[in-house]
Design a protein that fits this description.
By secondary structure, the protein is mainly β. The chain contains 2 helices and 11 strands. Strand 10 and strand 11 form a beta hairpin. It binds the ligand CN1CCN(c2cc(NC3CC3)nc(N)n2)CC1.
């Protein structure tokens, strides 16, 4: 298995969460938080902040906090996606549509889970209540979870 690192960053303002509709590439057609690959020489936090700005125009000012770690494997495929999940401490600016993403604020009680990755409804609630988690999901294609582990953790 070839481990590749990614970031995913949640931006919350009061009772709303900022998601982006992925217009192309991996996860096209799904609503997701902002993220991408980690480039050589950058830290996970730097990568998270860069991806949020590239995909949404939002500038993270107060840094990001690590809230989760997710490992994804896919039946018959050799890649392991190691996704480091962050929450923005504070941010500035209005989200703008980019080539990658169309941003929209969603009330926490109304997240579009049916149009998000199938794992999301399992771990978003943990973040939204202020918790931290570690999970591993083994997928068949992009829609079916064959097996999963998910635990809350006290610290990273
Ligand atoms: C750069 N991206 C960030 C987001 N990411 C994923 C993956 C995911 N499930 C995995 C079955 C695909 N679930 C969420 N919510 N995000 C993949 C890599």
């Amino acid at each position: 298995l070839i481990r590749k690192f990614y970031t995913l960053t949640l931006i919350r303002s009061g009772n709303k969460v900022l998601l982006g509709f992925k217009k192309r590439g991996f996860g096209q057609g799904k609503w997701n938080a902002f993220g991408g690959k980690v480039e050589k020489g950058e830290s996970l936090e730097e990568a998270a902040i860069r991806e949020v700005h590239e995909e949404s125009g939002i500038e993270i000012v107060g840094g990001v906090e690590k809230v989760g770690e997710l490992e994804f494997t896919f039946e018959g495929e050799s890649n392991l996606m190691d996704v480091h999940v962050f929450a923005a401490k504070s941010f500035k600016g209005e989200p703008v549509e980019t080539e990658e993403m169309r941003p929209q604020w969603f009330p926490i009680e109304d997240l579009p889970y049916s149009q998000m990755w199938p794992d999301d409804y399992l771990w978003y609630p943990i973040i939204l209540k202020g918790g931290k988690f570690r999970g591993a999901f083994h997928f068949q294609g992009h829609d079916i979870i064959l097996s999963q582990k998910l635990e809350e953790v006290n610290e990273f």
